[in-house]
Automatic annotation (TrEMBL):
Iron-sulfur is among the record's keywords: no
InterPro entries: SBP (IPR006059)
Lineage: Bacteria, Pseudomonadati, Pseudomonadota, Alphaproteobacteria, Hyphomicrobiales
Domain of life from the UniProt record: Bacteria
Protein name, entry field: Extracellular solute-binding protein
UniProt entry tagged with the keyword Signal: yes
Listed Gene3D superfamilies: Periplasmic binding protein-like II
Pfam families according to UniProt: SBP_bac_8
Keyword tags: Periplasm, Signal
Length: 215
């Protein structure tokens, strides 16, 4: 198993529709009537499922379920993070919960200085500041073990990490490698003390989503 890069959930907001100071202190606060029709999320996103798991770990299963039910009642569901991100940029909705690199994907096409939206990072160890790690691994059943191991070694090498960092606005894992994107410094994200091993698979998160009527 090789860990290749890291991403952070963030709040994309349309600068003409809302100010950063109006955003709540916690991702949990979006599941409220005050945000009815103003907050977008993508329930099928793997990052969203990790978010559910983080809330369940930190606040308890009942809190995670209440959050999901609040989003169902007051939020606006999109099929993907990219769809939610574009909706914010176009002014269709003020706010969306997306991984940071979706904003940079749009900015790469539009130009950062022309973007109508911006990113807000919740921080202060809130579940909404979860760090997620992208990983790759080899199947024992593979007949290409040597080639697979060489590929994994390349992914975590300086050359491989540079290629990944240039292709997408995720945080490289290799020490000393700086992303060419203007990412918020990793040391300033202030994530919660929840690790990928804590989250595990998405089984319980999917069960909570189904219970809340989102899946």
């Amino acid at each position: 198993m090789a860990r290749a890069d890291r991403a952070c959930p963030s709040v994309a907001f349309n600068k003409a529709m809302i100010t950063e100071s109006e955003l709540p202190a916690s991702v949990l606060d979006f599941a409220a009537e005050a945000w009815k029709g103003k907050f977008a999320y993508a329930p099928t996103s793997g990052a969203f499922q990790a978010q559910i798991a983080a809330i369940s770990i930190m606040k308890g299963r009942d809190a995670a379920l209440a959050w999901l039910k609040g989003l169902k009642d007051f939020g606006v569901s999109y099929n993907s993070d990219s769809g939610a991100m574009l909706a914010v940029e176009k002014g269709e909705i003020p706010v969306a919960l997306v991984n940071n690199y979706y904003w940079y994907s749009v900015a790469r096409e539009t130009g950062e200085d022309k973007m109508k939206s911006a990113l807000h990072f919740i921080g202060h160890q809130d579940p909404g500041a979860l760090i997620m790690v992208a990983a790759a691994g080899m199947l024992k059943s593979s007949k290409k073990q040597e080639a697979g191991q060489q590929f994994l070694a390349f992914m975590v090498s300086e050359e491989g990490q540079k290629a990944i960092a240039e292709a997408t606005a995720e945080y490289p894992l290799r020490p000393g490698l700086v992303s060419p994107y203007g990412l918020k410094p990793f040391g300033e994200l202030d994530p919660p003390p929840v690790t990928p091993s804590d989250i595990g698979d998405a089984e319980d998160a999917l069960a909570l989503a189904r219970e809340a009527g989102l899946a």
